[in-house]
Design brief:
17 helices; 33% helix; alpha/beta; UDP-N-acetylmuramoyl-L-alanine:D-glutamate ligase; 3 domains; six-stranded mixed beta sheet; Protein-Tyrosine Phosphatase, Chain A; eleven-stranded mixed beta sheet; 23% strand; Udp-n-acetylmuramoylalanyl-d-glutamate--2,6- Diaminopimelate Ligase, Chain: A, domain 1; globular
């Protein structure tokens, strides 16, 4: 039960309260289909529908209260408690936190935001603190982990009610450190409102999600919004190698720190050697081996080291445990055939990520070893990045096979055609286009010789392919293992 007095004392942007028959609420809900007697229904203006449309309907269902931005005339005299706020999306986050007993205040919560690297950093921090003897929690694109237990999720950052419900479970299970990816959608939609953060990490910012944010500036400021809300006792750790980092720090109250491997930073990493099975770098003045290849992995691990130290971990212990970290699902995940062909599955689905992963592969290959890239682009998503992805993949691979990713409601052939717009007519003739992803992977593997690398990019850890609203079982890793005879 949550009482009206607690709510009115805690909500930001409260405009007025119209008292009804009830001043306590059984649950907080934002889905009108789930609303019932005794509930407090929060009417949120979403991207697809406006929750205010459903207020009369939930009143008929017997809800005890409604939190909204504007009140329909027909419900003003219905005897329902009305809580009017400036922003009901933010109110939902604050109410969810309050209803579940403010679980994020019961442990140290660190958020990771940026275009690329969020999953790798958040997941590695989860595993690192587990190795250091802590009970940890994780919210990531790959799922939710609570002290070793797996829970599935449909969003990088879940909705506020699920988020706080899972955080309450984490607190109940004794977690003392929790790490979460903070997507730009989540920051923009106030899904993280009401949470208590101990720190925030910024990875980088490159083109993505412009189907939602419409322009790069809006995307940038959605990320910045997270840092603007960090409290004074938190830390703000940003990537000195990314020019957008200074923007993230402009208005934050948090203590400011930087990490980097190219630019001078508070936490400096330096790459000494790179191999397919890992990287030797200098961190905290000591040489350390990390089991992740590529310069981008070195940068991610520098962030992990910095965040761990800022969270109070012993620097020496951190460096010892970093070399023991397990791989992150679908992030530069390598499979080697008996003949010596290397297959790599990576979640790269932005121009920047595609470029970075292919540059890493090219750096690691020896003379004469070819890179065969299999690449698609997601349907119903940012279309402007498609030509750029194809352009980079063409320039940085020896053979490019364009295929489908999650086409969703679009035709794979149409998506491939838009990707090809990034190439000249002559270059287009060099590209192999195979809409069927399974056939595309099979073709790439058959072309490969010992020492060559087949990079399958875009889907990473995903175990499905979404076509016309249906999710079909499909795992790039399983496909590669079967075709490379490693099962």
């Amino acid at each position: 039960m949550t009482g009206l007095q607690d709510i009115t004392e805690r909500l930001t942007g409260l405009k007025r309260v119209i008292a009804g028959d009830k001043d306590t609420f059984r649950r907080v809900v934002s889905d009108s289909r789930q609303a019932g007697p005794g509930d407090l229904f929060v009417a949120v203006r979403g991207t697809r529908t406006d929750g205010h449309r459903y207020i009369p309907g939930v009143v008929k269902k017997g809800v005890a209260g409604i939190c909204c931005e504007s009140v329909p005339e027909e419900v003003k005299s219905a005897g329902v408690t009305l809580i009017v706020v400036e922003d009901s999306a933010r109110a939902l986050g604050e109410l969810a936190s309050l209803f579940y007993g403010e679980p994020s205040a019961k442990f140290s919560l660190t958020g990771v935001t940026g275009t690329n690297g969020k999953t790798s950093i958040a997941t590695s921090l989860y595993h690192l603190f587990s190795l250091l003897g802590h009970r940890a929690g994780l919210f990531a694109t790959t799922g939710i982990l609570i002290a070793g237990e797996e829970h599935s999720t449909t969003h990088t950052t879940p909705d506020p009610l699920l988020l706080n419900e899972q955080m309450a479970l984490m607190a109940e299970k004794g977690c003392d450190h929790v790490f979460m990816e903070v997507s730009s959608h989540a920051a923009d939609q106030e899904r993280i409102a009401g949470l208590h953060f101990a720190g925030g990490i910024f990875t980088n910012l490159t083109q993505d999600h412009l189907d939602y944010h419409k322009d790069f500036r809006s995307y940038l400021y959605a990320k910045k919004k997270f840092f603007d809300t960090l409290p004074a006792d938190a830390f703000a750790l940003v990537n000195a190698d990314d020019r957008n980092s200074s923007v993230m720090l402009q208005n934050t109250k948090a203590k400011k720190y930087t990490y980097g491997i190219k630019s001078p930073a508070d936490f400096q990493g330096k790459v000494l050697e790179m191999h397919f099975d890992g990287t030797l770098l200098v961190l905290g003045g000591r040489e350390v081996w990390i089991p992740f290849p590529g310069e981008f992995s070195a940068l991610n691990m520098t962030a992990v080291y910095a965040a761990a130290v800022l969270l109070g971990a012993d620097a020496g212990e951190v460096l010892e445990k970093i070399s023991m970290l397990p791989p992150v699902p679908g992030r530069f995940e390598m499979i080697t055939s008996p003949e010596g062909v290397r297959g790599i599955v990576d979640y790269a689905h932005t121009p920047d990520a595609v470029g970075k992963v292919l540059k890493a592969v090219k750096q690691l290959c020896r003379s004469g070893e070819k890179v065969i890239a299999v690449l698609g682009a997601g349907g119903n998503r940012d279309r402007s990045k498609r030509p750029r992805m194809a352009r980079l993949a063409y320039e940085l691979s020896d053979v490019l096979v364009l295929t489908s990713d999650n086409p969703r409601d679009e035709e794979p052939e149409a998506i491939i055609s838009e990707m090809l717009e990034g190439l000249t007519e002559k270059e287009k003739r060099d590209v192999i286009s195979i809409p069927d992803r399974r056939e595309a992977i099979k073709t790439a593997v058959r072309m490969a010789r010992p020492g060559d690398v087949v990079l399958v990019a875009g889907k990473g850890h995903e175990t499905y392919q979404e076509i016309k609203g249906v999710k079909h079982p499909f795992d790039d890793r399983e496909e590669l293992r079967r075709m490379m005879n490693t099962e």
